[in-house]
Amino acid sequence: MNTVNHSQIDLMASIDKLRQEVAKVIVGQETLVERLIIALMCQSHVLIEGIPGLAKTLTVNTMAQALDLNFSRVQFTPDLLPGDLTGTQIYNPATGQFDTQKGPIFANIILADEINRSPAKVQSALLEAMQEKQVTLGKNIHALPQPFLVLATQNPIEQEGTYPLPEAQVDRFMFKLKVTYPSFDDELEILRRMSMPSQDKPTINAVITAEELNLLSEKMAAVYLDASLEKYILHLVTATRQPELYDLPLSDMIRFGASPRATINLAMAARAIAVLQGRDHVQPDDIRSLAPDILRHRIALSYKAEAQNISSDQLIEQILAQVAIPHE
């Protein structure tokens, strides 16, 4: 089942080049880079959370430079207006008409930096773009370029002057990725690379085109997902809603569980990771490795769980341990 044709080999070479370009700047963070590639293949959005200084923005910037796609970076602030993101219509006295001035959202990749610093009006404007892939300006609807991805960052430790993302918007992100401190060896390499005053910035070359991303997406459709694994995905998601069905004592820890978007995204991402690893079928470990990143932001914790400092990751760990893994 592991036959790989020449077009796959060419695409895998392009993916390797993408990783090499990102590695010119980013030390480590292999999982983050892989998840971003999966999101590109699935044309889905990513929320990246981590304390300042962990290269969240730098990773997304570097990734965008390595892609032959249009890129916009928006620094979200409390005084940001929806029009600053989507654009607006400006009256032209010479013609007597309103001219459309498109905003930075009209790009293939949007880096929404510190997204939780923007007020609800801006977040709702972004929500339409993320879900509908379109923007309404005045009475006109404008389609966004394809592919269209929002890669958003947020800082989890500063709550003053921030606006928590509503559940309806958080659910539209395929992944919520947590960026942690680098390992000792990785940080030593970061020190050596970045602490020299004369350090020249490496040139990042565009190595993947939109056409190649489309081909990767087409490869996903050919990946085999066994019926037993489809049911396994559904069992994992159902366990977040009705944990008692799986003898999990978590009912008083969860206000509500994951939506059907979690089911869809687990299946899509599992196919994508199989393509990246040169396989034509999904394995149970693909689903298990992706589950925390896809489920953690879709489980609403109860007040009891929050009072006991229990995280959604801890609940997901229990679910993965309890729900039976299908035999291959």
What does this structure look like?
By secondary structure, the protein is α/β, with parallel strands linked by helices. It folds into 2 domains: 26-210, 3-Layer(aba) Sandwich (Rossmann fold), CATH 3.40.50; 223-322, Magnesium chelatase subunit I, C-Terminal domain (Helicase, Ruva Protein, domain 3, Orthogonal Bundle). Helices cover 45% and strands 16% of the residues. It has helices spanning 6-23, 30-42, 56-65, 82-86, 120-132, 167-170, 184-194, 210-221, 227-241, 260-276, 284-295, 303-307, 312-322; strands at residues 45-49, 71-75, 87-92, 97-102, 109-113, 134-137, 140-143, 149-154, 173-178, 254-256, 300-301. The strands form 4 sheets. The protein has a 5-stranded parallel sheet with strand order 2-5-8-1-9. The chain has a two-stranded antiparallel ribbon with strand order 3-4. Strand 6 (134-137) and strand 7 (140-143) form a beta hairpin.
